[in-house]
Amino acid sequence: MGSFWEWWQYLPAKMDPVIFTIGSFQLRWYGTMYIVAFAVTYILTQYRVKDEDLEYSQEVIENFFMYAIIGVLVGGRLGYVLFYNFGYYLLHPLEIILPVRFGNGVEFTGISGMSYHGGVIGVILAFVYVSKKHNLNFFRFTDLVAPAIPLGYMFGRIGNFINGELYGRVTDVSWGMYFPLDPTGQLRHPSQLYEAFFEGLFLFAILWIIRKRTPFQGFLPGLYLIGYGVVRFFIEFYRMPDEHLGLVFLGMTAGQILCLAMIAGGVVFWRLAKRAD
Length: 277
Hints:
By secondary structure, the chain is mainly alpha-helical.
């Protein structure tokens, strides 16, 4: 058993974040997982349309996913800038959209830093736009896609894990792991896997099971917002806070504060949905 835990604890060092390299081009697991996440969400949404005989055209579904991808990328990036590092990007605005850092010369960094909560806002805006464009019931349309979102999200967190980033706080539990990107080399919670399971698979199972038995239109996305906010709030106690922020208010991380806002947003969403039902 001891050999298993040793293998497990050093697993991150054995994983290569690059799938393959051709010349200067690298195909990385993290980016690939984004593609898998959208593909899974799209397939499950299409399955619901056919299985439940829902009246949504192929054009509507494809239109939504096109804008949802834009919403995730733009919203996620701007969310990171506004929620996590506004002061820095206020002084370096070009780095918001350019994959370089200007200091002593020009350093290629890639576009790093995405906020899940910003991505959620971007997807909500995609729902609003497509609903108006195609004259759809907004709350009924969000009910269609919401159950599939957590499973797609799970793959994003697995991508974080393979990348060795967003690791957890120092621990002494046997299932802790050593992450190569950790400069201190200490045993840490694999918080990416906690998130993949609870924010992804666990929430997906709940929403998928009850998808045909909801009390009102818009119930599922409201439940997802509240459920994700609650689960992520507690997982943040095991996740390493952003180094440049630390604990920002009453011993809470920035992520926890955003989760409280997300829970409140879910409650407001429910109230609006009930009023419109």
